[in-house]
Specification:
The complex is a heterodimer of chains A (92) and B (125). Chain A is built from three helices and no strands. Chain A is an all-alpha fold and 92 residues long. Chain A has one domain: Orthogonal Bundle (Helix Hairpins), CATH 1.10.287. The longest helix of chain B is centred in the C-terminal third of the chain and has 28 residues. Chain B starts with 7 loop residues before the first helix and ends with a helix. Chain B is elongated, with a radius of gyration of 21 Å. Classes of the chains: A mainly alpha (92), B mainly alpha (125). At the A-B interface, helix 1, helix 2 and helix 3 of A face helix 1, helix 3 and helix 4 of B.
């Protein structure tokens, strides 16, 4: 891997970290509960992208399964939270 | 670690795709913080969930295919999974937000769809 691609990957990770910090700020401050759920859903998506980029950086397939698991758990947790906000219980 | 390097054009392509996804993630986060309304804020993660995810998975497919001298398509699975799951989450969150705002009689809620579709034939006639 050339130094050029390493520098770009570092820049991308810094951008992702900044985006996660901003989303965390919205999740802590959010006026309503649905704002917090939206921000945490976005947080898991960016964490999944970060896993994929780390996998490219180290040229290894190890980080593929964490990315898939983050996507799945983000979906399940956001859907459960939305269902709870809508109905007051998750499984009826 | 770098026993076999990828060719230069592959690295340039991967770098471009990663930069596009980084810009998308930053745009989404800034919009998430700065927009006023929840229904306006809801549009923002879609940028990352579509273009950001597609760019990163395409970069991974191109990079690993070039590195291993063969097609490695398993990274598409992530973008297919996101394409299936993100609309479900978005619709459920929007319905939950509408339900909660209507329960509080908030003045900022959008009008119901039913009233608009009833009024449409009057305007046509």
């Amino acid at each position: 891997m050339s130094g050029f691609l390493q520098a770009v990957i570092t820049l991308t990770m810094v951008c992702y970290g900044l985006a996660m910090l901003l989303a965390l700020c919205r999740a802590l401050r959010g006026p309503t509960a649905q704002d917090r759920v939206l921000a945490i859903d976005f947080l898991t998506i960016v964490a999944m992208l970060l896993m994929l980029v780390v996998g490219i950086r180290y040229a290894s397939d190890t980080y593929f399964e964490p990315a898939l698991l983050l996507a799945l758990f983000g979906f399940v947790s956001s859907t459960a939270c939305a269902k709870f906000l809508l109905r007051g219980e998750v499984i009826e | 670690m770098n026993a076999a390097d990828a060719p230069l054009w592959v690295e340039v392509l991967v770098a471009l795709l990663l930069l596009v996804s980084a810009v998308m993630a930053l745009t989404s986060a800034i919009g998430l913080v700065r927009l006023r309304d929840f229904f306006a804020r809801m549009h923002m993660p879609a940028l990352t969930a579509t273009l950001g995810v597609w760019c990163v998975t395409l970069a991974a497919v191109v990079y690993f295919s070039a590195l291993r001298q063969g097609l490695s398509l398993s990274y598409w699975l992530v973008s297919i999974l996101m394409a299936i799951t993100v609309p479900v989450t978005t619709v459920m969150l929007a319905r939950a937000a509408l339900f909660r705002l209507r329960g509080r009689h908030d003045p900022g809620i959008p009008p119901p769809v039913q009233a608009r579709s009833v009024r449409a034939p009057d305007q046509a006639g």
